[in-house]
Design goal:
The complex is a heterodimer of chains A (about 160) and B (about 290). Chain A has about 160 residues and is of the alpha+beta class. Chain A has helices spanning about 1-20, 35-45, 85-90, 110-125, 160, and strands at about 45-55, 60-65, 70-75, 100, 105, 140-145. Chain A is built from five helices and six strands, in the order H-H-E-E-E-H-E-E-H-E-H. The relative contact order of chain A is 0.19. Chain B has helices at about 5, 25-45, 60-70, 85-100, 105-120, 125-140, 145-165, 195-215, 220-245, 250-255, 260-280, and strands at about 20-25, 80, 180, 185-190. A two-stranded antiparallel ribbon of chain B has the order 1-2. In chain B, strands 3-4 form a two-stranded antiparallel sheet. In chain B, strand 3 and strand 4 (about 185-190) form a beta hairpin. The chains are: A alpha+beta (about 160), B mainly alpha (about 290).
């Protein structure tokens, strides 16, 4: 049985090494994810006003809205598995509960139980070549709503579709 | 071939090789290998490739990992795990390694808990689990609520550095985390990443791992040596802060340039010196395991 265990574990390790060295082909996209995000929000009526880097590829994108003095902010997080302290603090101190978006789907939060099963399922589909590997698979968004303003409806599902 | 296979069924106390069991060493060994793989993969992601991997991996981390692997003593009393349990463990490891990737701290935590829960009666495995906890604690201490601790310590560091520089005649001012030197038209903000506590986390973890690996146990006097090491770390970090606060040229060298390597080596030497001093006393009495 020990030999069988060695064989199975070695096979898993080889598969993991192979996937690390030769990741599944990424789908060619016309725009980078942040440009896609800006485009989707523009169609919803929000005007891009600026971008500020946070850490490790995370960024805060700000948007203006006609008739609203305050700006909306979108925290762009390219890692499902981790979040910088700055992003955590921005979300924790938001005056209005943020809207959490994971791979074009509105979720109730970025907790392990919320995001991880979805992400693992998508990774399985990618591994089985049933889904293209595209950046939105591992991108989280947190939309910080400006106080006193109602945001227009946003078609988040358009993000992964490009 | 595992140690049990080499020893054969003639060794007293070993179950027969025909039983559907798996070597404990094989299970823990492979789980450790999976965790190390996760760690390398995360570093690769952050570095952006093999050619730049060296920027993300510190020599101290490599030494700690080698010592952790050594802690799983091949001479330890052999034991076996039921095949069903081993299969479930392997399924969990597969899920983490293939799908929920790049979570080495989580994987290491689960592995340490598993070893502690199942094999705590074996000193070698118990020490390994504690060492693994020390290894992941250095990352956990740099995140989440500990950032506020580092912010608070950074305020204290800046206060001490301002007094030190004024004593040396550099004429600095500022409040909170700011160290301003008007004569050089220069100032720095000591943020959490420059605080003593931020540096102390990896230094302290390295000390615990080295002592556990060298002595296979922990003694009360080690806590004293650890306290001394943390005090020395504060001194070295104070020197670093002072050097980086004097002028923009010195800041470029000691904070952004080659000077950072000198301090990295300095911290390694500190860990080595204090670990050797602590373990030198090993003949005076048995270690607590």
């Amino acid at each position: 049985m020990t030999r069988a265990f060695h064989a199975a574990a070695a096979a898993i390790m080889l598969a993991a090494a192979w996937l690390t060295l030769i990741p599944p082909a990424a789908r060619a996209t016309l725009h980078d994810p942040q440009a896609q995000l800006i485009g989707v929000l523009r169609e919803a009526g929000l005007t891009y006003t600026g971008r500020r880097d946070i850490a490790q590829g995370e960024a805060l994108l700000t948007f203006g809205q006609f008739g609203c003095a305050a700006q909306a902010g979108v925290i762009y997080m390219p890692w499902v598995s981790r979040m910088s302290p700055t992003a955590v603090a921005l979300i924790a101190h938001a005056r209005v509960p943020p809207v959490f978006v994971n791979d074009g789907e509105v979720v109730s939060g970025f907790s392990m139980t919320e995001v991880l099963p979805r992400w693992a399922w998508r990774r399985l589909l990618v591994l089985l070549r049933l889904k293209h590997d595209e950046p939105w698979t591992s991108i989280n968004l947190a939309l910080l709503t400006p106080r006193g303003c109602a945001l227009p409806p946003i078609d988040w599902a358009r993000l992964p579709r490009g | 071939m595992t140690i049990e296979d080499r020893a054969g069924p003639a060794v007293a106390g070993l179950p027969s090789l025909s039983t559907p069991d798996v070597s404990r060493l094989a299970v823990v060994g492979w789980l450790t290998a999976f965790t190390l793989f996760e760690w390398v993969r995360l570093k690769l992601e952050t570095a952006g490739g093999w050619t730049t991997l060296y920027r993300e991996v510190s020599a101290l981390e490599c030494v700690e990992l080698v010592l952790l692997v050594r802690m799983v003593d091949l001479r330890a009393r052999p034991s076996r795990i039921h095949a069903g349990e081993a299969a479930a463990i392997l399924a969990g490891a597969t899920f983490l390694t293939l799908f929920v990737t790049s979570r080495p701290v989580f994987s290491a935590g689960v592995l340490a808990l598993f070893v502690l829960a199942r094999f705590r009666n074996d000193p070698a495995y118990r020490i390994f689990a504690i060492g693994l906890f020390a290894f992941i604690s250095q990352y956990l201490l740099l995140t989440g609520p500990f950032i506020w601790l580092h912010d608070a310590v950074a305020t204290g560091d800046a206060w001490v550095t301002r007094h030190l520089l004024n004593l040396l005649g550099f004429g600095v001012t500022g409040s909170g985390t700011f160290i301003l030197r008007p004569a050089a038209d220069f100032g720095v903000d000591v943020i959490w990443g420059c605080s003593t506590s931020y540096v102390a986390a990896p230094v302290g973890a390295a000390f615990v791992i080295v002592v556990l690996a060298l002595r296979r146990g922990w003694r009360r006097s080690d806590a004293g040596w650890l306290a001394g090491l943390l005090l020395a770390t504060f001194g070295v970090n104070l020197l670093r802060l002072a050097l980086t606060s004097v002028s923009s040229e010195l800041h470029r060298f000691w904070h952004d340039g080659d000077g950072t390597a000198a301090f990295a080596v300095g911290y390694m030497l500190l860990v080595a010196a204090f670990s050797l001093l602590a373990t030198r006393e090993q003949h005076r009495g048995p270690a607590t395991q």
